[in-house]
Amino acid sequence: MAAIRFLILDVDGVMTDGYVTYTSSGEELKSFNIKDGAGIKYWRRSGHGAGIITGRTSDIVKRRAAELGIEYVEMDAKAKLPAFERMIDAAGVTMDEVAMIGDDLLDLPIIRRVGLGIAVADAVAEVREAAHWTTTLPGGRGAIREAIERILKAQGRWDAIMERYLV
């Protein structure tokens, strides 16, 4: 975990609980976990990069990425591997420096290649089996925060985050 400096996130089922709600006018609604968002901010504050790769397209995801300072966003990625390759090239990182949090079969090609493949607790069996480890929390319910804290603690960076709040 010491080498990890870039985090890639799936959206539906990882950043959200996987549910998509449509209003009567056809607008799409998604809910994001505030603790996950705080974890992403801690990750960025630690000097690490982040990206989103999702198979769907959503203005809500663009907005959430901007709020959290996630600089790389690939949407409508029906095959995620080409999007992943573009992203790590643009970010200037190697596969060994990347962690990916996923939940479904589209995430498998990346999870199998990165330095740290992470499955959320409610990921499909194939993703849990391929991942290096699985969170105890489900997607959209704190799994991202759990993963970020674990990585930052392993890197000895968590205490610096905590100092800000122990005043």
Please provide a brief summary of the model:
The protein is α/β, with parallel strands linked by helices and 167 residues long.
Can you tell me about this structure?
The protein is of the alpha/beta class. It contains 8 helices and 8 strands; from the N terminus they run βαββαβαβαβαβαβαα. It has helices at 11-15, 34-45, 59-68, 80-91, 108-111, 125-130, 143-154, 158-163, and strands spanning 6-9, 21-22, 28-29, 49-53, 72-74, 98-102, 116-119, 133-134. Helix 2 (34-45) runs parallel beside helix 7 (143-154). It is globular and about 45 Å long. The model has no long low-confidence stretch (mean pLDDT 96).
| Number of helices in the DSSP assignment | 8
**Average pLDDT reading:** 96
Q: What would you call the shape? A: globular
Please mark out the parts with pLDDT under 50 across 5 or more consecutive residues, or reply none.
none
Helix content: 40-55%
Report the end-to-end length measured between terminal Cα atoms: 29 Å
Question: How do the helices and strands follow one another from N- to C-terminus?
Answer: EHEEHEHEHEHEHEHH
Keywords, please?
two-stranded antiparallel sheet; six-stranded parallel beta sheet; alpha/beta; 167 residues; single chain; 16% strand
